[in-house]
Amino acid sequence: MFVMGDLDLAIRGRTYREPEGPHSMVVRGRDLDAGLQHIAAREDCRSVAVVGLPEQVPDLSQLTGRRLLLVDGDSGRLRNFAETAIRAGIEVEWIRSARPPFERLAAALLPVGGIVLAAGKSSRMPGSQKLLLDIDGVPMVRHVFEAASEGGCHQTVVVYAEDDVKRAINGRAELVYNAKAASGMASSLQAGLKAMRPEIQAAVILLGDQPLVGSRTVATLLRAWRREGSRPAVAVSHGEDGWAPPVVLAREMWHELFALKGDAGARQVLHGRPELLDIIPAPGGPDDIDTPDDYAKIVRLFPRKRPRQRA
């Protein structure tokens, strides 16, 4: 994250020096001309946030094909800049605020994707595909991908192997079919990572059998990961193992995940490497459902809907 000028942003990966490799940039409006020169020289500058817009809209053609975020307290300036950007074919968002709101700025500059692993065999749940079990009137797996999308993920994919799971999603999320699902979880994780769009800076990995993970769980993880000084991975504190999915994994770690085989997952990459992982408390429950007893315990947490009385 290249911060040009004197903006003080406690955001992950912040640097005031010319960065190497692909990056995003934050610049004050008064320094926008210098920012546009940087963009002209660096094709790998993928997105730009301009905080405090100048009165005159400069030539924005250098931004074509990149993402632009505008932050200003004046509606007229925002409208003028946004209209110019749209005419130039630039993907643009805007925030009406005199001060840069950290959460929205960080979310725009550090987009995170969600990967729901839903290609398992349910071997300990006899007679049924557990991801289709009813939780409060909805298939279990839908609770999970809705938590990802509503929790702030810019892209959400569900990795599946069975058509019944595909039908349960019913077009509500991107679907990735894993023909190698029988080989273990690693192949599903890798299929999901391959589906992430180029601008995605990290992926939050969710298990399809964790219906108590909610949008607040995901949002808490994303906020923690985007903070300055955070480690490459952030997970929910849980139980004797110390942590449980969901876990956010920065793109810089993905090459290690692509080397995994069989049923290995993020835990194998992070084991014994505390310097890579922040463990944080978060709302919601990371408990997964493996057996009929697990399912019965979860169902009891949801009050039954009473049938309507006929007049």
Any chance you could write out the topology, listing elements then pairs?
Blueprint lengths: L1 E3 L18 E6 L3 H10 L3 E7 L15 E6 L2 H13 L3 E6 L5 H8 L2 E7 L15 E2 L2 E2 H11 L4 E6 L2 H7 L4 E4 L7 H10 L7 E6 L7 H12 L6 E6 L3 E9 L3 H4 L8 H5 L6 E4 L11 H8 L12
Parallel strand pairs: 1-2, 2-3, 3-4, 4-5, 6-9, 6-11, 9-10, 12-14
Antiparallel strand pairs: 7-8, 11-13, 12-13
What does this structure look like?
With 311 residues, the chain is α/β, with parallel strands linked by helices. It folds into two domains: 2-108, no CATH class; 112-298, Spore Coat Polysaccharide Biosynthesis Protein SpsA, Chain A (Alpha-Beta Complex), CATH 3.90.550.10. Helix content is 28%, strand content 24%. The strands form three sheets. Strands 10-9-6-11-13-12-14 form a seven-stranded mixed β-sheet, sandwiched between helices. The chain has a five-stranded parallel β-sheet with strand order 1-2-3-4-5, with helices on both faces. Strands 7-8 form a two-stranded antiparallel sheet. Strand 4 (67-72), helix 2 (75-87) and strand 5 form a beta-alpha-beta unit. Helix 4 (140-150) runs parallel beside helix 7. The chain is elongated. The model is unreliable at 306-311 (pLDDT under 50).
Summarize the structure.
The protein is an alpha/beta fold and 311 residues long.
CATH secondary-structure class of the largest domain: Alpha Beta
Can you tell me the CATH architecture of the largest domain? Alpha-Beta Complex
* Helix/strand/pairing category: alpha/beta
Q: Which band does the percent of strand residues land in?
A: 15-25%
Largest sheet: 7 strands, mixed
Question: What coarse outline follows from CA principal-axis ratios?
Answer: elongated
The helix tally amounts to 10
User: CATH homologous superfamily of the largest domain?
Assistant: Spore Coat Polysaccharide Biosynthesis Protein SpsA, Chain A
